[in-house]
Automatic annotation (TrEMBL):
GO molecular function: FMN binding; oxidoreductase activity
Pfam families linked: FMN_red
InterPro entries, alphabetized: Flavoprotein-like_sf, FMN_Rdtase-like_dom, NAD(P)H-dep_reductase
Protein name: NADPH-dependent FMN reductase-like domain-containing protein
Cellular component annotations (GO), alphabetically ordered: cytosol
Domain NADPH-dependent FMN reductase-like: 3-142
Listed transmembrane segments: none
PANTHER family assigned to the protein according to its UniProt record, in alphabetical order: CHROMATE REDUCTASE, NAD(P)H-DEPENDENT FMN REDUCTASE LOT6
Amino acid sequence: MPTVLMIVGSLRKQSFNRQLAQFAAHALAGRANVSVLDWRDVPVFNQDEEFPNPESVASARTAVADADALWIVTPEYNHGMPGPLKNLLDWLSRPAEDGSPSPLFGKTMTMSGAGGANCVRDSFATLLPVLEFMKMRFAPATFTGVAVSREMFISDTLELDDAAKSAIEHQADALIGMVDER
Ligand SMILES: Cc1cc2nc3c(=O)[nH]c(=O)nc-3n(C[C@H](O)[C@H](O)[C@H](O)COP(=O)(O)O)c2cc1C
């Protein structure tokens, strides 16, 4: 069974994006082993302290390298991707001390997100050139952006309508299809 690693762009415990990742995991059930990357201890990148990699970075590198595909699920902060997520990608973009390349390079992936009325459009827009620069391979499905309603913000519980559910299912199908092709 292939492995899919979820990278949630919010570290908030009750994160809507963490909840959206659970919907995505559900859509992949029976077709992939799904796990969620724990990257909360990854420090702010400092090239002076790059090697040896901090333990949290080394384990994130291994988890990404071992995954057949990644699914980034992220909010939008100030009309761009969250700074902490960019920091994580900067760490992962680097070669290891032994010279082995970035585990992101050429990785199959897709992305989704939950946020305000903008449906995380600008988060996707700032992520895209970064991911393309890393030669990541996008599954052939539209990225799903979900708007969190006022009621959901109050209850801290994400609910998906039928359109969002089927968009996530379509992404899951496309991701698995691409992994199976390889
Ligand atoms: C620093 C910050 C900036 C934000 N900027 C935006 C934004 O530009 N667009 C938007 O739709 N939501 C924005 N939001 C609201 C987030 O979409 C909302 O807090 C969302 O719940 C965060 O995702 P999470 O629940 O996974 O933590 C911002 C939130 C924070 C904390």
